[in-house]
Design goal:
By secondary structure, the chain is an alpha/beta fold. It is built from 11 helices and 17 strands. The model is unreliable at 1-21, 23-33 and 451-455 (pLDDT under 50).
């Protein structure tokens, strides 16, 4: 525990609307002197944000103008990878620093073991106030992600999230804080009738990128389309994507209001800010099908990862090294000067990035292994396809040379297994999740997760 002066960082949240790996050298062996306040931490997860649809990453529509400006004080990772195309698995990793193969929450009926470490628990034990605001469904107490949060409040859309965060003004906080903010507004909307739209941003964002986008979709039954029963024609697909892009801009504009409000109030003065996503989105660009989030294609696995270090480390730079969601927790630990956890396979995002690093993704029965430029997609015991992302960024051409295929796929799998084997054992298998209510199940079905498959 540390001592501190009275600064009340959350009181002023005036919301206006050294490389390491498992078993390796510790990130920091000593904590702050007693007269130094450790930095606060804000972790923002923008559910279903596909990196390739952000103007920050070169997309031709101005979907993220604010994040482009904010990136001038951040380190932007251009090759960030999710661990799964599913909210449940990815957030379990984001909050633990463990691969899915380690935490084991890869099924809707599973929850984190109470012995599995959560970053909120670690920071709370270190003296932080801990606050989480999330969209329920595959994230929340049912799966054990609420542990360590003294406040863990659900919301549905941005206005309600804003109301929840304003409550922090009443809490008389005098300590560093950890704020986890999960926003679901980019995700597809409720499909309660055949006339529901897959993406339905509020005005004026519904017409921002295509004036007649709404009219072009009136004939689409998105319940059937989301189930993979029908395909969209090119004009319908274009209109749908325009609405998805409008949702991104809606969230970007909201983040500008919030983050600049925090800045004006002084809440960013000594704060680590991490903005990322759990997964991307398929958007029907593989034959017009829109079911699922994109399986193990880069459509789903390539995500944003933007880090603002309190001291301005590498501000305004873009990093090309391959990084993963498993790196979020190690980065927080290093920034607040806590020891590395030998059970975690990730590395701090502050430091050298190895060019031959292998990262993985897993959503049973599918997995992926990446060591740029190579990308393996497969199922257990079966390597399905190998792609060179440098020459084949859209994963359209599989490597057909058998000798090259087996040489690279075996090396990728062996290298990834060595990463897992190099971690200290967790000894905390997942436990059964709390039984889901009928109301929650109906909500998930309306979002397209029929039967809880949850891709």
């Amino acid at each position: 525990m540390f001592s501190m002066t009275r600064i009340g960082p959350l009181q002023v949240l005036a919301i206006a609307s050294g490389l390491t790996a498992c078993g390796g050298e510790t990130l920091a062996a000593t904590h702050d002197p007693e007269d130094v306040i450790p930095p606060s931490v804000i972790l923002i997860s923008l559910d279903t944000l596909r990196a390739g649809h952000m103007s920050l990453h070169g997309y031709d529509r101005e979907t993220t103008p604010y994040l482009e400006r904010f990136a001038e004080e951040c380190l932007v990772f251009d090759q960030a990878t999710s661990v799964a195309p599913w909210t449940l698995i990815s957030h379990a990793t984001m909050l633990t620093g463990l691969y899915p193969e380690q935490h084991g929450v890869v099924d809707d009926n599973l929850a984190l073991n109470p012995l599995t470490p959560l970053i909120a628990e670690t920071l709370k034990d270190y003296g932080y106030r801990t606050y989480g605001f999330y969209r329920p469904g595959f994230l929340g107490p049912r799966h054990g992600e609420d542990r360590g949060f003294e406040v863990f409040e659900p919301h549905v859309e941005l206005p309600e999230a804003e109301e929840n965060m304003v409550k922090l003004l009443e809490m008389n906080v005098e300590q560093p804080f950890f704020l986890f903010l999960h926003l679901f507004d980019i995700h597809g909307d409720h499909l309660r009738s055949p006339k529901s739209l897959k993406y339905d941003p509020p005005p004026p964002y519904d017409r921002l990128f295509q004036e007649d986008a709404r009219e072009k979709q009136v004939e689409v039954d998105y319940i059937k389309a989301n189930a993979g029963l029908i395909q969209l024609d090119p004009p319908q697909l274009e209109a749908m994507i325009s609405m998805y892009d409008g949702k991104i801009r809606y969230v970007d504009d909201t983040l500008e209001r919030w983050i600049e409000g925090w800045r004006d109030a002084g809440a960013l003065d000594n704060t680590l800010v991490i903005i990322t996503s759990d997964h991307g989105e398929s958007l029907g660009q593989r034959g017009g099908l829109i079911s699922g989030h994109g399986r193990m294609w880069q459509d789903a696995l390539h995500i944003p990862l933007i880090v603002r270090f309190p001291d301005g480390y590498r501000a305004g730079e873009h990093e090309q090294g391959l990084v993963s969601l498993v790196d979020v927790v190690p980065t927080i630990l290093e920034t607040v000067r806590l020891d590395a956890d030998p059970r975690m396979p990730g590395v701090s995002l502050r430091g050298e990035h190895l060019p031959d690093r292998v990262v993985g993704a897993f959503r049973p029965p599918f997995h992926a292994r990446l060591r740029f430029p190579w990308k393996l997609r497969g199922t257990k015991g079966d390597a399905t396809s190998l792609h060179n992302l440098e020459t084949d960024p859209h994963e359209l051409d599989r490597v057909v040379n058998k000798e090259l295929f087996f040489e690279i796929t075996e090396d990728l799998e062996r290298s990834f297994q060595q990463v897992l084997e190099g971690c200290a054992p967790l000894d905390a298998p997942p436990i059964p999740a709390i039984e889901m209510s009928q109301e929650t199940r109906a909500e998930l079905n309306a979002l397209g997760y029929g039967g809880g498959d949850g891709e």
